[in-house]
Specification:
- The complex is a heterodimer of chains A (240) and B (256).
- Chain A is mainly alpha-helical and 240 residues long.
- Chain A contains six helices and three strands.
- Among the domains of chain A are: 44 residues; 77 residues.
- Chain A has a two-stranded antiparallel ribbon with strand order 1-2.
- Chain B folds into two domains: 30 residues, no CATH class; 190 residues, Up-down Bundle (Cytochrome Bc1 Complex, Chain C), CATH 1.20.810.10.
- Chain B has 256 residues and is mainly α.
- The chains are: A mainly alpha (240), B mainly alpha (256).
- At the A-B interface, strand 3, helix 1, helix 3 and helix 4 of A face helix 3, strand 1, helix 5, helix 6 and helix 7 of B.
- Strand 3 of chain A pairs antiparallel with strand 1 of chain B.
């Protein structure tokens, strides 16, 4: 096996085998010691949070899920709970599981490279950062009644009433959403024929479907922030 | 002075010592290999690894740290179980006792709590690194799948632990979390198309999670059992698969 490091160009160098003991095991023990010391040190100085006895009659305001779920809770601002809390996380998990079966690019197996897998790395890094940006907003910038506060603003209950929201007309919503997925699925296939041919119909549709859903989630958020749109598609049965 | 070498020889050169330690510690290639392959814990590793797999710059050591924190959480968790009873009338008082009465209780609880947060961070950084090195590519596709499930289980482990102190923080966090289940399409009573299956507050998926229509004693017990027994057992089984396949598929971040 050769390991290629990109910054040095494509230089292949020999990857010799070394004894696990002590080369690897020593580092593992050191890492374990650092983690233990770090955790104990932090635990000595910082107490784990503990609030009053739970009281079903008195809701916390804001009531927040654990920080790693706050990205989803933040998505609740823009979407109904069935999407933000159930379907979106399911799509994320399913999408993550599908990654190895969708990415059939044989290059970049076992070494760092951006040049050989630009699409895969860009998409993943974008999603990863987006997830943490949402978590940051949900954790640090959301105060009482989930109102938005900049880091330098004090959390108060006295914030301006948000502007009223409106739904897009149903036909327009269906055209926009249908057009988005239709264009998103067909255009890249026509423009980047090579990309389409390499993936094949099934891989291509799944990849682009997932990518468009991720981008669409962002677009819906922009629609809401810029144009006060509550739902793109509003029906008596389901709203998006 | 031949006292110390003589003493060492006396201690090590006999049947009892040799029945425990099968090889010497003289620095020979043979002993270095034996150190790994004759040890139940270390033989998860091969006797020799590719050099790049030992570079922290390359591997970030995040998967190993996640596993180590899992062990750390298991030990501190077992100790916490001696002091904590998942009963709505006692749970909060037990945590207060841990914080103010039990010797080192505060330290124990703090490290368990911060360890849980650390584990969520290390496991997601691990996934990030594995993606960047393309380590999910053939033949390792399925191990990535196992990893994704382990990531979800890590979230669930942390989430179920959140309710246990039975304080306002945990109670309302779990309220927010499980209210989402109410909106599950088809399966939650407020979700789209739930009328097709006749979902009501007392028979939907949220009811199944909480063991009731509100967060009460059954929910606390369920969180406790999932947190302390069920999820750790499932996660351990999947970790065995995960590590085994890392080894079988070519070792740390290297294709066959």
């Amino acid at each position: 096996m050769e390991v290629r490091l990109e910054k040095k160009g494509i230089i292949e160098f020999k990857d010799d085998k070394v004894f696990t003991w002590p080369t690897l095991v020593a580092k593992e023990f050191l890492a374990a010691i650092f983690v233990t010391v770090g955790l104990l040190f932090y635990s000595y100085f910082v107490d784990a949070p503990l609030r009053e006895l739970s009281n079903p009659g008195q809701a916390e305001n804001p009531a927040k899920a654990p920080w790693y779920f706050l990205g989803l809770q933040e998505a609740l601002v823009y979407f109904d709970p069935w999407y933000a809390g159930v379907v979106l996380p399911s799509i994320i998990i399913l999408g993550l599981i599908l990654i190895p079966y969708l990415d059939n690019n044989p290059k970049g197996n076992g070494y760092y490279t951006f040049r050989e897998r630009k699409f895969a790395v860009t998409t993943f890094v974008f999603g990863y950062i987006f997830w943490y940006v949402l978590i940051y907003i949900g954790t640090a910038l959301r105060g009482p009644f989930w109102a938005f506060f900049w880091p330098w603003e004090k959390w108060t209950h006295d914030f301006p009433t948000p502007p009223p929201l409106h739904d897009l007309p149903l036909p327009l919503g269906i055209v926009l959403m249908g057009g988005f997925y239709f264009a998103g699925l067909t255009l890249p296939a026509l423009v980047k024929r090579d990309f389409f041919m390499k993936l094949g119909v099934i891989r291509y549709s799944l990849t682009m479907g997932l990518l468009l859903t991720m981008i669409g989630t962002v677009i819906k958020m922009v629609f809401r922030l810029a144009f006060n749109v509550k739902y793109i598609i509003a029906t008596p049965w389901i709203n998006i | 002075m031949k006292l110390i070498p003589d003493l060492i020889k006396k201690i090590t050169d006999n049947e009892i010592w040799k029945s425990v330690f099968r090889h010497g510690y003289t620095d020979t290639p043979r002993n270095r290999a034996l150190q790994i392959i004759s040890n139940i814990w270390l033989h998860l590793h091969p006797a020799k690894v590719r050099e790049h797999g030992t570079k922290i710059r390359f591997t970030w050591c995040m998967g190993g740290m996640t596993f180590f924190i899992f062990l750390f959480e298991t030990i501190t968790g077992i100790l916490l179980m001696f002091y904590y009873v998942p009963d709505v009338n006692r749970a909060y008082a037990d945590i207060v006792d841990l914080m103010y009465v039990v010797p080192f209780g505060r330290f124990l609880r703090n490290s368990h709590r911060w360890g849980a947060h650390a584990m969520v961070i290390t496991v997601s950084v691990h996934m990030f690194r594995v993606f960047l090195t393309g380590s999910y590519k053939p033949p390792r596709q399925f191990n990535w799948v196992v990893g994704v499930i382990l990531l979800v289980l890590t979230f669930l482990l942390s989430f179920t632990g959140y309710l246990l102190p039975w304080d306002q923080l945990g109670y309302w966090a779990i309220t927010v979390g499980t209210n989402m289940a109410r909106a599950t399409p088809f399966l939650g009573h407020e979700g789209p198309f739930s009328y097709i299956l006749g979902m009501k507050p007392d028979n939907d998926v949220r009811f199944a999670l909480l063991g009731g229509t509100s967060i009460d004693a059954p929910a606390l017990l369920r969180a406790y059992v999932w947190h302390c027994i069920a999820i750790p057992v499932i996660a351990s089984a999947l970790m065995m698969v995960h590590f085994w396949r890392v080894r079988k598929d070519g070792g740390i971040s290297g294709p066959l």
